[in-house]
Amino acid sequence: MKKRTLSLLIVLMMVLTFGLTGCGGGDTDTEEPSGDQAEALKIVLLLNGTLGDKSFFDSADNGLKMVQEKYGDSVETKTIEMTYDETKWQPTLQDISDEDWDIIIVGTWQMQEMLQEIAPMYPEKKYIIFDTSVDYENFDLGNVYSINYKQNEGSFLAGALAAKVTNSDMELANAEKRIGFLGGMDIPVINDFLVGYIQGAQYVDEDIKVEISYIGNFDDSAKGKELALAQYGMGADIGFNVAGQAGLGQLDAAKEQGKYAIGVDSDQALLFADSDPEKANLIVTSMLKRVDNSIVRAIDMHFEGTLPYGTAENLGFAEGAVGLADNEYFNTLVSDDVRGELQEIQEMIINGEITVNSAIGMSTEEINEIKDSVKE
Prior knowledge:
The chain has 376 residues and is of the alpha/beta class. It has helices at 2-30, 56-71, 89-98, 112-118, 151-166, 188-204, 221-233, 248-257, 268-271, 277-280, 291-304, 328-333, 336-350, 364-372; strands at 41-47, 75-81, 103-107, 126-130, 144-149, 178-183, 209-214, 238-242, 260-264, 283-289, 312-315, 322-324. The longest helix is centred in the N-terminal third of the chain and has 29 residues, at 2-30.
């Protein structure tokens, strides 16, 4: 009897001792770090190009800088320029995925297939791709969030403005109802700009003519200038460049010819305000594709736990993802009446009174029909 009592006491002491140490150990192991103990969220941006385009890639980099400024020590950020050498893109994405980055950001349709191949290999990583969407139906991409932009909406306003300019008595406007469009490549996302631009111009003047050229890439600014000079030579008094770094050639052509231009992605007038004020004074506005805002929005939602990985979103005026640059040049060159009309058009697009056509999903024949509608 005494032996049984002693045995029970020993067992009871062991249970109590194990319970106390087990609970204490469990609390230590599962406690989430907070405050200074929390590890910084590591975010890397891979550019399939270089900085300095004063457009698309600079906007993406600015978004990462905005994230760093907003979250401070809670994030660690880095931008990597992979250059325009396509052979470097996939190996770099693979190498970065092997490292300890939490979120890997890439952009453009040129990175789509590579991401579809690599992202499923790293299910613990999160990926963001902007300006295109991955194929969620045929690939296991629950860790990828895609951002598409309603560039057709912003370009509708750019086209309406261009039509207003060419029909105005502005100093550098001529008597011809002719405007220009300079695209990087003949691809759906660039044609989405074009379709919106033409529709916006025709909304103002159904007889408008549009000179359309494609450079064939996004980095040859010399060719961009050559094509833009040809457009100005054909009678266009304002042109819209949608070609990244190559589109800077159009701004050079505008300066050389004394014509107006519309920038793209970033506020290109402000970017040249100090280095080339003569050029800046010819950029009536820029159609902003706010890659920067969309990246900040995505990281905000990631922290909130609401970013819908495994899906694509289309962002437009309502999300602050597109719009016209409102700066001193816009306010000086464009009359109060025209600026007011453009604001009204934007509100009509937001509330659905104006439906802007999109080249995404259009056939080649449909796009060519739209192009033909603004030819001689």
